[in-house]
Amino acid sequence: MINRAPLSLLYLNVLAIATCGLIYELLAGTLASYVLGDSVTQFSFVIGVYLSAMGVGAWLSQYIQSNLARYFIEIELALALIGGVSAPVLFLAFPWIDWFRPMLFGMVFSIGVLVGLELPLLMRILKEYLDFGDLVSRVLTFDYIGALLASLLFPILFVPYLGLVRTSLLFGMLNALVAWWSTYLLRPLLSSRGLERLRWRAILVTFLLCVGFFKADQLTTLAEENALGGKIIYTTHSPYQRIAITQKRLGFQLFLNGHLQFNSVDEYRYHEALVHPAMLGNEPPRHVLVMGGGDGLAVRECLKYSSLESLSLVDLDPAMTQLSKNFEPLNRLNHGAFSDSRVEVINEDAFLWIGKPGPQYDAVIIDFPDPGSYSVGKLYTTRFFRLLQKRLKPAALVTVQCTSPLVAPKSYWCIVRTLEAAGFHVRPYHAPVPSFGIWGFALASISEFDSTPLPFDRVRGELRFLTNDVLNGLFELPADLQPMDSEINRLDNQALVHYYDSEWNRSD
Prior knowledge:
Elements: H1 4-36, H2 39-60, H3 68-93, H4 100-126, H5 132-185, H6 195-214, H7 216-228, E1 231-237, E2 242-248, E3 251-256, E4 259-263, H8 267-279, E5 287-292, H9 297-302, E6 310-314, H10 318-326, H11 328-333, E7 343-346, H12 350-353, E8 361-367, H13 374-377, H14 382-389, E9 392-401, H15 409-421, E10 425-433, E11 437-445, H16 468-474, H17 495-507
Parallel strand pairs: 5-6, 5-8, 6-7, 8-9
Antiparallel strand pairs: 1-2, 2-3, 3-4, 9-11, 10-11
């Protein structure tokens, strides 16, 4: 018989296994979107596979008819190993194997089956000591509390401060400790034969995962160097993203969540093409808004205009803007942009910030990441662009980075059509950037405008890519970049995110 005190403690097991189970699901979904790049589709697939696997596990539990306590502990140890090493193994495997997707979803399915086995076995162990109604209500209560804890702590605490690899290993250790602890709580239901070996196995698994936890930085660095190509010279997790900088022979590269943001060798092509069409409008720009662009490189280009009196940079992540100021190679590359007294850094969600009352601007540079998720896709909707209009002076020009019109034409023209639907006059253009290929932009205004730029004599700094002839040529679209029909991106359909996922996933 199990006495009342251990019986109560078993509810903590329910809490622990529920928390671990949801954490493994969130880890797999986040990892899938991180390494495969199509977050909406991959996260949906992971959830579907995981939940169906839990159903399989629950169904299989009926075939375990004896030694329930021992099977429960064995399952906890298996889950500790497979779940605990899932993130580091998948990180390390991604650059090396062609069948990464089957491996990822195979691991998700295995974890789901094991999680699906846990609660039915534990409930069958407890049914001898509790009324059925009490059993179901108590177990499900702790199960849902565990799920709540996992869903809150995963984005707020674990990923920002521990990272995916350490979080995976930590919860593997928790499963192993549940197994060890259960050898004592369930002692009356376990035969003495092999009991000590079971306990030592739990201790060994905990020790191995603990070693991995303290070696996680080396594992993550090795995995990222293989995946990103280049020596990792800086890496950190913020509450919003994974930031990594790699070094190659000719320069360094910035990655956010595994996606290349710029290469120091050719970033000037991208940023000159992004910034100067809006800055070379009819009136010399005095007050400028940059949205996104926490690396400071678009700000660098804006500061080349002597007419500039103030510049507001709105970027969500303070870790990124601080890095741009304090990481010396990046600070040199952006020419110390954030040390200029005219620059104000605002670390807020651009979608919320743009809806607040505030000043109007002569030029706006939009340098958001590509719309690979709903949280970014909302920044390319008719709602956002209509809010933006309230911050524009009548003759203000806006430039928007719009992903590649060659690789993702539906995505590109979706952004252009969405700007038009929001009331903008739009001129599409493109630029060749070796690290990215052909890249697309849009020049827009709430008033009709001439896209022929003024002479470059108002620029008080070096331009390495643009000349007047080159800039005019960017607005000439070749035959393979011609306009096409697409849906308008609205908050209630997020058509752009679906286009983007489909086109970039197809190109891999």
